[in-house]
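From the pipeline queue, job 12 of 40. The input is one protein chain; the requested action is below.

Action: predict structure.
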Amino acid sequence: MEQQLLEAKLRTKKGKVYSRKLRKEGLIPAVLYGGSKDPLPVEVNIRDLERIFLSGEGSNIIINLQFSNVNGNPVEAVLIKDFQQDPVTSAFLHVDFLRVSLKEKITAHVPLVLVGEAPGVKETGILEHFLRELTIRCLPLEIPRHIEVDVSQLKIGESIHARDLKVPKGIEVLSDPDQVVVTIGVPSKLEVEEVVAAPTVTEPEVIGKGKEEEVVKEEEKEAEK
């Protein structure tokens, strides 16, 4: 992973009023912490920070903070640990920088990107992407932008687990190896309702008037006997 240079300055003041003043000047308040050193209040240029975010390196980019108002212009290797944005304008409001040593392994979360076209999808299967990030441990400069998940051989009913992923050499996977990354689900079958034939209703026999008289006469004869 490439490193990005970002100019920074130590903040001499703190507070909400001073932070608002910085933002009006195109700067953003930040904090640098981690390692064996004390936390430091710093400020960086908003435009420069946005440029780094738009570079495509993702959240695991290694930034070299170069302090222009400190003797010797020291440089600190950092990661963006956290940041706050305006909910309306998405403008950066605050950033937390974490010190890292380029010689010590760290834990990082790397995006998983699906590549290829799954045969199961062509067979009307449903592709379900469950695990979006992989937790890994490696040296800071070895953190990949993303890890590809090849689904070009995936058929209906088949899955890819974390243990199946191919990761670069030197990277230790910390995610549960049994976690399902992606699967091709079986399409839901439409239930065909069986049409049940209505039972045949037998109409009662209607006895006409003539027929009724004959029946009565027969009964009278039987009575006389």
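Job complete. The first strand starts at residue 3 and ends at 10.
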